[in-house]
Design goal:
The structure is a single chain. The protein is built from 14 helices and 5 strands. It is mainly alpha-helical. The longest helix has 27 residues. The radius of gyration is 22 Å and the shape is elongated.
């Protein structure tokens, strides 16, 4: 067994990944695979909590997401990439943890309340959605990790995971550690039209898109709404484009862009060209790796089969201990 500290994280297969996913999540995962015994999973059961009425895209989205992960730099030789629903122990541990989780803990979860109010186009009044945090706790605690890479919006879920783990340990004896948050820096990637980046708005820059497709989008991209003419000074701090320069341009280039924008010596068209050039340099290696993967039929299934086997072995050992401690051996 690896002597590295262990971490685990997952992502729902709900559609193609965009730059926000890369800089907000995947970039951190890529770094962790070199320092941690890292487990990364496709959270397809979690996708069903909100998309249960039409699960037809989950299989395709799973394959596309794994392609995005590996082409971005996740290495199946360095980390465990697996599919949640193929490790049945996750469901068993979730069931057992649900027996000791007070209903009030789930109902007070702020994320649950917010999504009930914000998501009006889906019926979320199901037990699976309410118990989402219990399944998430099972996903995490199963691998006895010291930490979990999360954004700030997931901190309430992680705290609930720790509470559930503490309750198990109090009732049955010490098994689960209290995983700490490995906070990922927030990556500001606004939609190209100024709204939140979303597949449904078609306003994102997706990792699998061709440069030609992206070029057409960037040509129409919103910039500084107050800058009507090239002779008007701009303000990078309210510009929709500048956050992308922060992610993809060098500090020296960012300073030059800021100076050129505020002095009206750099127009938005030229600024977009600089962004496209840097974006192309960033995406081309990803596209090359993706093309090589797609040229190998069945490669995603091979990656997941290997990862599933490694995850299942660990999960089986954890469940053997949990069953014994709960008198179910």
């Amino acid at each position: 067994m690896s002597q590295k500290p262990r971490t685990v994280s997952g992502m729902r297969p709900t559609g193609p990944l965009h730059l926000g996913h890369y800089f907000g999540v995947i970039k951190n995962w890529i770094a962790l695979q070199d320092t941690e015994d890292a487990y990364f999973f496709v959270a397809d059961w979690h996708a069903l909590t909100s998309d249960y009425a039409d699960p037809s895209n989950i299989g395709h989205n799973t394959e596309a997401m794994v392609l995005d992960w590996v082409s971005s730099g996740l290495d199946p030789e360095k980390c465990v990439i697996f599919r949640q629903s193929r490790i049945k122990e996750h469901a068993e541990l979730s069931l057992l943890l649900s027996m000791i989780t007070p209903l009030s803990w789930l109902e007070r979860n702020p994320t649950y309340k917010e999504q009930l109010q914000q998501i009006s186009n889906k019926d979320l009044g199901n037990a699976g959605f309410l118990c989402y945090p219990v399944l998430m706790a099972a996903d995490i605690l199963m691998y006895l990790p010291h930490g979990v890479p999360v954004g700030e919006d997931q901190l309430p879920h992680l705290e609930l995971t720790r509470e559930i783990g503490r309750r198990f340990n109090y009732l049955y004896g010490d098994l689960f550690p209290e995983p700490q948050a490995l906070l990922t820096p927030a990556a500001k990637c606004p939609g190209l039209d100024g709204r939140k980046m979303s597949k449904s708005y078609n306003n994102g820059i997706f990792l699998s898109e061709s440069i030609d497709e992206i070029s057409k989008k960037i040509a129409k991209m919103y910039t500084d709404p107050a800058r009507k003419r090239i002779s008007d000074p701009g303000n990078p701090d309210i510009c929709n484009l500048f956050p992308y320069h922060v992610l993809l341009s060098s500090p020296e280039e960012q300073n030059e862009i800021r100076l050129g924008c505020t002095s009206a010596t750099l127009g938005c068209v030229e600024c977009k060209k600089i962004f496209l050039r840097n974006l192309k340099a960033f995406l081309e290696p990803l596209h090359e790796r993706r093309a090589a993967l797609e040229a190998r039929p069945g490669c995603v299934a091979e990656i997941l089969d290997a990862g599933n086997a490694r995850a299942r072995k660990f999960a089986a050992a954890t469940m053997e201990k949990a069953r014994a401690m709960m008198g179910l051996d």
